[in-house]
Amino acid sequence: MASKSFLGSAAALAFAVGAHSAPAQADAVAEFYKGQVGIMAVGFGPGGGYDRYSRLVVNHLGKHIPGKPTFVPQFMPGGGSLKMANYTYNVAPKNGTFIGLASPMLPIFQLIRSKGFKLDVRKLSWLGRLATQKHVMMVRADTGIKTLEDLKKTEVVAAASGLASPTYMFPAFLNSLLGTKFKIIKGYKGSAGTRLALERGEAKALTSGWISWKSQVPQWIENKFIIPVVELGLNKAPDLPQNVPLIVDLAKTPADRAFAEFMMGPTITGRAIFGPPGLPKARLAALRAAYDKMVKDPAFLAEAKSRKVEIHPMGGAEIAKRVTQTASASEATIKRAKKALGFK
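and the corresponding structure tokens:
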């Protein structure tokens, strides 16, 4: 049996090694990042909400990373951000110099539409969330529609950009779960295109993020050009009228609830920053710590306010957990989602 003096010496040595390893790792991270120029990839084109959030990140994240690297935005639109996500997973350098923003709907599409999917969202290196993606289905007030019950009786054209967009997925989901009669017209170019369709009257309904409605067309809400009929999310937004129902509260059976929670999972993970899989542990830890500091930084919050974007922080470990939960749905729920969204 080892002597007490030997055990005490071993413990002291272990403590000394541990005490020196953390500074050594921090020094190594700082040395690596010093002078680096990294990429902040965006899965959509310039000019939209993802653009504004990405520019906010590139202006502030680097100063909280040891070595203070610089990040620059790079736009990689295509496939509802699948092009960018595939690149991040398979091609981008896995050394902590490449991060990005993509659609939160990717965990759903990984399960229901495998074509073109060359990644596993559960293996991405999640750094943290910038904002939720609660959606609100709006209809033009001149339709006379006031409630979801009205939408079950009257066909209404909803504008959508493409199959990978919530503008398509959510009205299709509502048709399946509640029996609404949205006629979804796809092919509009991005959020600007769908809003223009709504403004012109080509469409009478559109789902978009609540933060986008408030920042892009607040006058439409104020003058009641549009009215909210249902909130698409897992919890209520405090600044929506209380009479607007929350979709998960409308589920009538456990299966309905599971289906709704699966489809609403991305509204919680929202606009989250991630990197490729397999990042060195010390650099991933440094990036997550930098995110945590950034979202509390008064300068960051002041710029977010000036850019009219909301910040709803959630740490990388919790985001990874939520993404994994959505991407691990039951076969019954996946089958139902495929049918609702028109995939085989």
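(Above: one complete record from the training split.) The chain has a mean pLDDT of 91.
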